[in-house]
Design a protein that fits this description.
This protein is mainly α. The protein is built from 18 helices and no strands. α2 packs antiparallel against α3, α7 runs antiparallel to α8 and α16 packs antiparallel against α18. The termini are far apart.
Length: about 375
């Protein structure tokens, strides 16, 4: 046996270590093979689904998702775990197209697989200031508004320290803190608005770097803050800037933003009594939503009912009645789709009640326009010779 410290001893030790490493490598490979055997190969989501969704063609994306899922289920008749991602994709596209029932069902099927998707979806940039912002977002979700505020303030300090006070990174951090103050700390809303204006000024210099949509979030927050105090005329300019921003194609969901921001602008104009301008905007919303959403979905219904309101506001009763009729018929079909008239069906009917009220108003207005005193049983007035 070689003595400790000798060349032969060192050589034997190296041989033992090499053998140990080989054993560990074999065990690791075996473990990986076992894990791979236990974890079925996941089917990828076809790229055309994402392309259709980003283009605002929600019904087409839903159809493609249904077809992809059908192919996966046919190829995996005994174990559908490889189709899990397609199930959650189907859920997302169904919600986007306005099919709430299918979206909820597909989501429940996905949850039944017991996959921890949150760890992946929460992955964010490793920048120090972004980590503070992520922690702030977590606190805000848990309604710990004070700690969230502290984290957002630390994010601002870190972004300014690392990138400078006039950088896009600082602008994004200003926006995060400003929106939090407006939404969660009403007594500091004026400070939040000041931060948002500063954030907008910085980000507008380099909008191509605004991958997270901070500019749109900031403009929305300013508009909502003014509308909360019924200052709709002041909020209108921010609503119009949001429409222009969406039309420029900025953001990951520009197709959705184009109709969503127009809808918010139409509501703003309604509150100001600018029904002619509302009609113009709402017709654009109707054209977009009819192409994007399944018939009788909530978005599809409101596109028609809101246009009817814009027409009624201008006393264009005949055309308003046409769209009110479309809205009421849609509401009846939506409620009929429920298996029983339960709380969900009642809430659905209640949310669409304005169309029925509008239809009655339109019918009364049109009837009054054509009625004469004789229709009410009055004799013609006597005239002297």
């Amino acid at each position: 046996m070689p003595s400790p410290g000798s060349a032969n001893w060192q050589s034997a030790g190296s041989a033992v270590r090499r053998a140990a490493f080989r054993v560990l490598a074999v065990l690791a490979l075996a473990g990986a093979a076992t894990a791979a055997a236990q974890e079925p190969e996941r089917w990828e989501v076809p790229r055309e689904i994402y392309d259709a969704s980003l283009a605002g063609e929600y019904r087409k994306a839903l159809s493609l998702a249904q077809a992809a899922l059908a192919r996966c289920r046919e190829a995996n008749p005994t174990d559908e775990r490889p189709c899990a991602t397609l199930w959650v994709t189907l859920s997302s596209q169904a919600y986007s197209a306005g099919d709430q029932t299918l979206g909820a069902y597909a989501g429940k099927v996905y949850d039944s697989f017991g996959i921890d998707y949150k760890s992946k979806s929460l992955a964010r940039a490793n920048a120090r200031w972004r980590r503070f912002a992520d922690r702030a977002s977590s606190y805000s979700t848990g309604d710990d508004n004070q700690r969230a505020k502290e984290m957002y303030q630390l994010a601002v300090l870190a972004a300014v320290s690392k990138h400078g006070p006039d950088s896009v990174a600082a602008g994004v951090a200003y926006g995060d803190l400003g929106r939090h103050l407006i939404y969660r700390h009403p007594t500091e809303a004026s400070r939040g608005a000041t931060l948002l204006h500063r954030s907008i000024r910085l980000i507008e210099r380099c909008p191509e770097l605004d991958s997270g949509g901070t500019l749109a979030y900031n403009l929305s927050a300013l508009a909502l803050n003014l509308e909360k105090y019924r200052l709709y005329d002041l909020a209108e300019r921010y609503r119009r800037k949001l429409v222009l921003l969406a039309d420029s194609g900025v953001g990951a969901s520009a197709a959705f933003d184009r109709q969503s921001h127009r809808s918010s602008l139409a509501y703003n104009l309604r509150r100001q009594g600018k029904f002619a301008e509302m009609e113009q905007v709402q017709r654009e919303v109707l054209r977009m939503r009819v192409a994007q959403y399944v018939p009788d979905s909530n978005m599809w219904y409101h596109a028609h009912a809101d246009l009817a309101d814009a027409l009624a506001g201008q006393r264009k009763w005949a055309e308003a009645r046409t769209y009110y009729r479309i809205g009421t018929a849609s509401a009846q079909r939506a409620v009929a789709a429920f298996e029983k008239f339960d709380g969900g069906a009642e809430r659905e009917m209640r949310s669409r009640r304005p169309a029925f009220i509008g239809l009655v108003r339109a019918n009364w207005a049109l009837a009054g326009a054509t009625r004469t005193p004789q229709d009410a049983g009055l004799k013609p007035p006597r005239r002297g010779s």
